[in-house]
């Protein structure tokens, strides 16, 4: 069985299939865990904001997976307490966030991390004196998860190897077909029982270059982050002052991680955080934490492409779900979140049988 793509989805598929006794070879054109899966917001989460678009199945599944990551690899995944500060001038009201958190708790079923509570403004500013008090009503504290995405993914790679999977780096795949054949540059076709295309944002391109017809397509939406060279005393989920999008302020390696943006782009454009995106994130931060930060405090920028199942209109509303399409012996995986990669992988054995 061949797997194309060494991001978190490909690695979880390799691990799961190897655990089930399949002979697995994974082909990654560059290094393992070196593309989208290391450019995430580092959150293991149900995705509170997906409740606005009623992606309830996804949120329930992701909440269950979040807790399993904590158990599987506590060295790289841990619960994170997040505050949602509510301002009088915000787009979403206290009751809207409260309703979302109530539903989030219901979807988290028996999770030990499902509780949330309200904190008045004075208590929040006592916890974090940097929190902007102007118009602050109070805030909700709830729990999600944080990971070191690259290290956790490499840990999965190690589990896959130990289960018997062979993982090839610097091994680009040119083409696959519905008869289970796979071509690498300048080489004869190799025959497999099944070829699984889990190439993330490049999955649709590989399928189309291979002449495979897909029912679904991908919307590619760049998300950028910056890391500030200043400590983060409290993680926040907040609204951006310009467009009211949700963004995160998170502790990250003694600094502060800010993300993210949503910019549609083509696959051949550079995947990099623009100056405009960095400024957008600095504006968001300055609206919540004082003193505001300047560009000189940025110690790192990174960006990734979200492989979203195609939707018409607003990228903010495109689906974070995944779909698995089969054409003969070729299986194409499109979409999906970091958090839910194991759930996606668990669906494969029944499909390849
Ligand atoms: C900005 C941003 C923030 C995000 N934040 C979160 C978050 O906090 N939590 C969360 O759960 N999810 C998050 N996500 C979503 C999540 O990161 C992605 O859905 C996930 O990482 C996709 O993993 P993947 O394995 O499908 O893709 P990738 O990680 O991109 O892996 C695909 C791999 O395929 C390889 N490849 C491509 N073509 C070929 C070929 N022809 N031959 C061989 N190899 C090939 C690539 O080199 C790449 O390594 C975020 C996404 C973005 C962009």
Please outline the helices and strands.
Elements: E1 2-4, H1 8-19, E2 25-27, E3 43-44, H2 56-72, E4 77-87, H3 94-107, E5 117-120, H4 121-127, E6 136-147, H5 149-162, E7 166-168, E8 173-176, E9 181-184, E10 190-191, E11 195-197, H6 203-209, E12 218-228, E13 235-239, E14 246-252, E15 255-259, E16 263-264, H7 275-288, E17 298-309, E18 322-327, E19 330-335, H8 341-352
Parallel strand pairs: 1-2, 1-11, 2-7, 4-13, 11-19
Antiparallel strand pairs: 3-6, 4-6, 5-6, 8-9, 9-10, 12-15, 12-16, 12-17, 13-14, 14-15, 18-19
Flavin-adenine dinucleotide is lined by residues 4-10, 27-30, 34-37, 39-43, 45, 172-173, 198-202, 206, 223, 260, 304-306, 336-339.
List keywords for this structure.
ten-stranded mixed beta sheet; alpha+beta; FAD/NAD(P)-binding domain; elongated; six-stranded mixed beta sheet; binds flavin-adenine dinucleotide; 30% strand; 353 residues
- What would the average pLDDT be, to the nearest integer? 95
**General form:** elongated
The fraction of residues assigned to DSSP E strands is 25-35%
**Order of secondary-structure elements:** EHEEHEHEHEHEEEEEHEEEEEHEEEH
Over the alpha carbons, how many angstroms does the gyration radius reach? 21 Å
Uncertain residue ranges: none
CATH superfamily of the domain at 1-42 and 148-217 and 314-353: FAD/NAD(P)-binding domain
The ligands bound in this entry are: flavin-adenine dinucleotide
Helix content range = 25-40%
Total number of strands: 19
Structural class: alpha+beta
CATH topology heading of the domain at 1-42 and 148-217 and 314-353:
FAD/NAD(P)-binding domain
Termini Cα gap? 11 Å
């Amino acid at each position: 069985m061949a797997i194309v793509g060494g991001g978190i989805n490909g690695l979880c598929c390799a691990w799961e299939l190897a655990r089930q006794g399949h002979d697995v070879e994974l082909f990654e054109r560059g290094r393992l865990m070196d593309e989208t899966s290391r450019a995430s917001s580092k959150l293991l989460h149900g995705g509170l904001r997906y409740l606005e678009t009623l992606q309830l199945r996804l949120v329930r599944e992701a909440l269950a997976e979040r807790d399993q990551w904590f158990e599987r690899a506590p060295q790289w995944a841990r619960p994170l307490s997040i505050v949602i500060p509510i301002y009088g001038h915000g787009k979403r009201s206290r009751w809207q966030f409260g309703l979302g958190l109530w539903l989030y708790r219901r979807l988290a079923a028996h999770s030990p991390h499902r509780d949330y509570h309200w904190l008045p403004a004075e208590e929040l500013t006592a916890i974090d004196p940097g929190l902007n008090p102007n118009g602050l009503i109070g805030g909700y504290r709830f729990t999600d998860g944080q990971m070191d995405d690259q290290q956790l993914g490499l840990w999965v790679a190690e589990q896959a190897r130990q289960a018997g999977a062979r993982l090839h780096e610097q091994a680009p795949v040119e083409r696959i077909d519905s008869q289970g054949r796979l071509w690498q540059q300048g080489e004869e076709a190799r025959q497999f029982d099944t070829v699984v295309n889990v190439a993330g944002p490049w999955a649709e391109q590989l399928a189309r270059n291979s002449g495979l017809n897909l029912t679904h397509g991908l919307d590619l939406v760049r998300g950028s982050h910056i890391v500030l060279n200043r400590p983060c005393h409290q993680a926040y989920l907040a609204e951006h002052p310009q467009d009211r999008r949700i963004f995160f302020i998170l502790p990250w390696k003694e600094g502060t991680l800010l993300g993210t943006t949503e910019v549609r782009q083509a696959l051949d454009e550079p995947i990099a955080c623009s100056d405009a995106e960095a400024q957008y994130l600095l504006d968001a931060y300055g609206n919540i934490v004082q003193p505001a930060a300047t560009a000189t405090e940025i110690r790192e920028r990174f960006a990734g492409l979200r492989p979203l199942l195609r939707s018409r209109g607003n990228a903010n509303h495109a689906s974070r779900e995944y779909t698995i399409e089969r054409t003969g012996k070729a299986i194409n995986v499109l979409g999906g979140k970091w958090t839910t990669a194991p759930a996606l992988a668990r669906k494969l054995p029944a499909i390849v049988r």
